[in-house]
Design brief:
Blueprint: H1 2-17, E1 23-24, H2 27-52, H3 56-72, E2 76-77, H4 78-106, H5 115-127, H6 129-143, H7 151-168, H8 171-175, H9 191-201, H10 206-228, H11 236-261
Antiparallel strand pairs: 1-2
Length: 266
């Protein structure tokens, strides 16, 4: 969940950097800033406080979000937005690391990352650090004995894959291919098309490309099922266990794709 927020903060900053006006006056950008602030206080902050407690650093971070919200309710300079977004991104990354590290050290029943998981983490850390954070958060969620919902966990694994594909296959590079054609209702390359771009670039056989694309389809399908799952009190335990098993499948499929995309060798 923190990894997704970091990614969205980065996306808003990138969008603002492309603008030319001195002030940010478009309602779309303001709405995105308001939505990010709401998600932080309603979803992300409780997780950080649960792990780290109420600290001076936490309160200073809260103030940055409040400053962003004030900016979004007026006509303010693009530079002021970018300054705050840069600080938020850096601090969120630190919170993400500490939030993951502390619980993982205290969970007695949890298993340390496997050799394969460590290889993926090491590769992502050097390539796309924010993707590594999302992947590590997913690992922690799966060993957290108090976890009651795995919707965020499924999203973390998928997000780590999406960010990696965005790094390996930038939109302009994919759009420049002679085979590229926007899919229905899409204005930019899909994850499937990005996979195809990467594997074609590496001259992989067509059968292997199709296999990875199908695996990606399974990731999307299972992630969607977990995100849409409805929990009720009568069958909460069974729903939670079922979702956990489905997220484990998502992780296995994501791991398989990472080994292909990142050319990881045991």
């Amino acid at each position: 969940m923190i990894g997704q927020l970091i990614s969205d903060v980065e996306a808003l900053a990138a969008s603002l950097r492309r603008g030319h006006a001195v002030n940010v006056n478009d309602q779309s950008s303001k709405d995105r800033a308001i939505d990010l602030t709401s998600r932080y206080f309603n979803e992300v902050r409780p997780l950080i406080v649960k792990s780290n407690g109420e600290t001076d650093g936490q309160h200073a971070h809260d103030e940055l979000w409040q400053q962003l919200l004030r900016l979004a309710h007026g006509s303010n300079s693009r530079r002021s937005y970018l300054k705050i977004l840069s600080l938020l991104r850096a601090q969120l990354r630190e919170f993400s690391i500490s939030t993951i590290a502390r619980p993982m050290a205290s969970v007695k029943s949890g298993q340390p990352p496997t050799q394969e998981e460590n290889l993926i983490l090491d590769t992502l850390e050097s390539l796309v650090p924010s993707a590594a954070l999302s992947y590590r958060q997913g690992l922690y969620d799966l060993i957290d004995p108090e976890r009651m919902s795995y919707r965020g966990t499924a999203a973390e694994f998928r997000e780590s894959l999406r960010e990696t594909l965005d790094h390996l296959a930038p939109d302009p590079d994919v759009e420049g291919q002679d085979w590229y054609k926007p899919e229905d209702d899409q204005t930019k390359p899909t994850m499937k098309q990005k996979v195809r771009y990467v594997l074609k670039l590496r001259e992989r056989k067509k059968a292997q490309t199709i296999s990875v694309e199908k695996t990606l389809g399974l990731v999307d399908e299972l992630t969607g099922q977990v995100m849409r799952a409805v929990y009720d009190r009568a069958s909460l335990a069974s729903h939670v266990n079922q979702s956990r098993d489905e997220v484990k499948k998502v992780k296995r499929y994501v791991d398989t794709i990472f080994f292909d995309l990142l050319e990881i060798r045991l």
